C-alpha cells in the first residue's frame, strides 16, 4: 500500500514539472566535461615560499640588485657609453656559481634569435595570424619593412662589452649567449652575501621610427621649422641582471620582442652626461638640481608642488629658443631611485616641461610630483591633458590598490607610442601642424593621449610595484592594468569608447586564431585581444557580474597589497581572489584563462506549464478552453462561411448522448476515481494541493544550451503581460552537472504572465551571439551596418578644432614659431 501511495503522490506532483513537452536532458557517457574541476589540480603546489591562500609564504625571498651608473649620450653619433657597478645581493637559500644578465640591445643584431625567428609579414618579430596566400595572391612588403631592413643593415647594433671585472678590477670570465650574458663568479655566492662587479659598455642608439623598438631616438627634419633636433628615449639601455626566483631559478629566456621584462628590485644611482642645452627626466629624484636648472626653473618647480594646475618649468617659448641653441659643452644630471625594478630616462633640447604636485593621505609619501615633458609638437593637447591624466591615474588606481609610493610620476612625449618604466612613461600622440602655424588635434588624438597616459602611468602599479613576470605572463600586467585603466577612463568620460567592455572581445573570442590567456608571451597569436582586452573584460565581468563590487574590490586590494614590491605568479592571483572573496572561482579562472571557450548561451525554448489537479471537473474544463482557443481549420471555417450544414445540425431530433455532450464532459466514473485517490492523500498533502490550486501560479520551464563551452551565470530579464520586467541571475553553478544543456523551472504569480525573456540584455557577459538570447526570437540590427553608421556619422576622427579654427584664435590655442 505504501508503494502505491508514493506512485499516486508522484502522479499529482510530477505534473507540475512534466506536463507539456519540455525536453529531457541526457548526458552521454564519455562526453562529460567537468567545468567546475578544481583549479588546484593544475596550479603549482603551495609551499613555504607561496602559501595556499595566495600570500607570500613564511620563507618568501627575492633578490636585490643595486646599480651605480655613469653614462654619456653622444648626440652626434647617437651613441651611449656607460660604466656601471652592480651590487648583487643573494637572498635566496642557494649558492650561486654565476650570474645571468639580459642584453636586450642584442636583440636587434642580425644573428639574434629574435631576428632569425621572425616570420614574413611580421615587423619586429611579430606574426600575422590571419595572413594567407591563395593561387592568385602575391606577397607584399611595405616601405616601413624596407626602412627597417635598411636601418639594421646600415648600422652596427647591439652591445659592445669592453670590460667585465670584479670589485678589485680583476677580469671576470663571461659568455655572451644571444641577448644574454653569463658571468662566472670566482667562487659561489652564498646565501645572504653580496658581490660587486663592473661592466663597461657602449651601443648605437636605435632610430625608433625606423626599427619599431621600445626606445630610441627620433630625428626631426633639418628645416627652419624643426631645426634638426632629436628626442632620446632611453630604456633597456644598460646590461641588467636577470631575475632569479623560487619558481624558475634564473629567468634566462631572452627578449624576443613581445614578452616584456621581469626584473629585480634595487637602488639606482645614475649620472647622465648630455649636451648642456638638453633637459633630462628620469626614474627617481634629481639630486643636483642647482647645477642643471636655472634659478627661475627652481622657483617654478617649488611653486608647482602646491599648484592647483600644471606650472611650466620650461615654457613653450623657452623650449623653442632651446631648439636653435648654439650652446656647447655638457651637463651631468644625477638621479637616484630606491626600491625600483628598472630605470629609464629621456633627453632633448626640445622639451617643454610642466609639473603639478599631487597630495595623497599616505603619511609615508604624502607628496607626488606629476610631470610632463613634450616638444612643441605636443602643443595644447599635452598642455591640457598629460599631467591632468597622470594625476587622475594616481587617484583612481590608488583607490583600488595602495597609495602611490614613488616621489614622481612622469609622462614623456617621443617616438614610442606607449611604454612604461618606474615613475616614467613614454607616450606618442601629438597635435597637427597647419600652414597658418596653428596646431590642432582630433578627438581621436585627445582620446589616445588620455588613454595611453592612464595606461602607461598605471603600469607603475602593475608590474613596477606588483612585480609580475611579464616575460612569461603578459596578462598579469597588461590585462590587470587594462582592467584598471578601463575603470579610470570611464571615470574620465564614459561617453567615449575606451574599448574595455564585454562587447569589445566577442569577435576575438569566437575566432579561430586564439590561444589561452595562460600562453607564454612570445607565443600569443594576437597580443592585444589576448593579453590586454580579454583578461580586462574577464576581470570586469568578475567584478560586475560574478562577485559584485564589494567582494571583488576587497579581494583585489588584498592581492595588490600582499604582493606590493614582491613577485606574484598567476596562482598567487587566483588563490588570493578566491580566498579573500570567499567564493569558489575555479570554474571562472579555468574557463577564461586556460581555454579558448567563449560565451554563447542560447535560450532555446520556454514551456508554460499548469498544475493538473486530476479533478475532472476542473481539468476537463481547462482542456475544453484550450481546445476552443485553437484556430479553426480552414476547411471547417470555409464550410461555415458557405452556409453548409453538418449532419448533426441537420438531424437534431435524432441525437444520442455523445452528440449532446462533447469530449470534455465529465462522467461519475471519473469523479469517483478522483475522489478515491484524493482520499488516500495525507492531510498535509491535501493542504498543499488545495493551496496550489487556489494560487494557480504560472510554471515556466526554460531550456538553455551552452553553445560556446564557457560556463557563465545566466542573466535573465523577464517581461510580463502587464508591462513589468524582472531581472533574475542564475549562478554559473547551474551548469555543474550538465555543462551543455540545462532546464530551469521559474514560477510566477497568477497575474504575472510571461510574454518574453532575454539573456544578458545589457551585454555584460561577452556573449558572442545575441540572436539566440531572445525568446521569442527578435530581429537584431546588423552589426556591420552599425559599424558603417558609426564610421560615416561619428566625429571621433574629425579634426574638430581645425574645422572650427576661426573660433580658435585665442593665443593659448596656438604655438607660434619664432
From TrEMBL:
Residues 1-22 form the signal peptide. This is M1 family metallopeptidase. Pfam families: Peptidase_M1 (PF01433). The keyword Magnesium does not apply. Keywords: Signal. One of its GO terms (molecular function) is peptide binding. GO terms for biological process: peptide catabolic process. The keyword Thylakoid does not apply. It comes from the Bacteria. InterPro entries: Peptidase_M1_aminopeptidases (IPR050344), Peptidase_M1_dom (IPR014782), Peptidase_M4/M1_CTD_sf (IPR027268). One of its GO terms (cellular component) is extracellular space. Residues 393-592 form the Peptidase M1 membrane alanine aminopeptidase domain. It comes from Shewanella algicola.
